[in-house]
Amino acid sequence: MNQSRMRFQDPIHGLMEFEDWVVKVIDTEHFQRLRNIKQLGTTYYVYPGACHNRFEHSLGVAHLANSLVTRIYETHKQPELPKLEYNERDLKCVTLAALCHDLGHGPFSHLFEKEFIKKIRPERKWKHEDGSKMMVNHLFEVYGSKILGDLDTNDEKFIKDLIDGNRTNRSPYLFDVVANKRNSIDVDKFDYLARDCHYLGMKSEFDHSRLMKFSRVYENQITYYFKESYNIYDLFHTRYSLHKKAYNHRVGKAIDFMIRDALIEADPILKISESINDPNEYLKMDDTILNKIEFSNDEELKKSQDIIKRIRTRNLYKFVDEFLVPEDLKDKLTEQKINPVEIADKELKVDDIIVDRLVLNYGMKAENPVNHVKFYDKKKGDKVFTLEKSQVSYLVPEQFEELNIRIFSKDPDHKKIEHTRKRFQELLKKITNKDQKTYYTR
């Protein structure tokens, strides 16, 4: 590609180079909007170093996607490997998919889809990937060939399929790059694990650059050198650890619920939830929505403003208690049995109680994602295989998903928190016929 390039200095990947057509996409209002959306949402309220945004993450993912696919093309020039023809059009599409994969994130990242939209528009089953596809469609409509060159409607569909992980017959291995639904290994994770650990001040043993170096394409999928199997387990363990320690921190989650409630109270006035239907309105949706509510003179926004003031003065919703659910109790402790109505009594309002069902896993629900990873051995030619846990380590997990039921109180009154905790513990005993050890019964 004989085009001019622009360089970005990045704290994670060093010098990242992008061709002129990529920079034109970066310079659109669609992409620039990501500067005002915190990568880790309310985690910033707990970890002040976590101030990075979706903007730089998306640049990193595009850099890694382009680098990985280019490396694969170069590697497969070796005569002993399956031949892969260099395809400039496919490379542009996967780079653009990586660049645009997070265009659909709303204010405070996952809070918008998982808390706000899910609560206020449950019938939509809307995900940020749906928003990303809407914004990609809008990019093609608004700019077309001005910045996207000769990419056509077929390419647009391919890009949206890559973002959604909707595998088709067009270069099937490319669906392992941006949003890998086959085994959950993709450059999106490569970037956010490294970037988030850096800004959170945490360490990660996972080495994405090494894994990329040992990537090959066999049987229309990206495979890895078998000696990288433990590195892959480190990937999934790092992801789990970040969710456990940072992404779902109790204080951050309490603030999640507060911002959700503030947005819900403001929605009838500002029509925030309707923005997911209109890309022009969605362009206005970023973290500054709180400022818009906070500094408005509209008296109808007072309830929202009161909640935001509580955040500003750290008068937060309070963590009450939690119960890490054993496997044999998951079928008993359902949403129908553990909910605010069952916990509330004459002293406790239903609306003041929040039940958070936190599910953490290795990226594929209760499955071990490594069971879906194909490996190669240089000595065995093009034969690919899977690895049992016993072939990697006897210390990898036996279980790959956990359920943690957490209770929060909107009312910070100490006596009510104590009473809510007691009611929760009594409810657990009533359902299971046994005293259960919660966080506060150690």
From TrEMBL:
Residues 50-202 form the HD/PDEase domain. It holds the Pfam family HD_assoc_2. It comes from the Eukaryota. Coiled coil: none annotated. GO terms for molecular function: dGTPase activity. SUPFAM superfamilies: HD-domain/PDEase-like (SSF109604). InterPro entries: dGTPase-like, HD/PDEase_dom, HD_assoc_2, HD_domain. Gene3D superfamilies: 3.30.70.2760, Hypothetical protein af1432. GO terms for biological process: dGTP catabolic process. GO terms for cellular component: nucleus. This is HD/PDEase domain-containing protein. It comes from Glomus cerebriforme. The lineage of its organism: Eukaryota, Fungi, Fungi incertae sedis, Mucoromycota, Glomeromycotina.
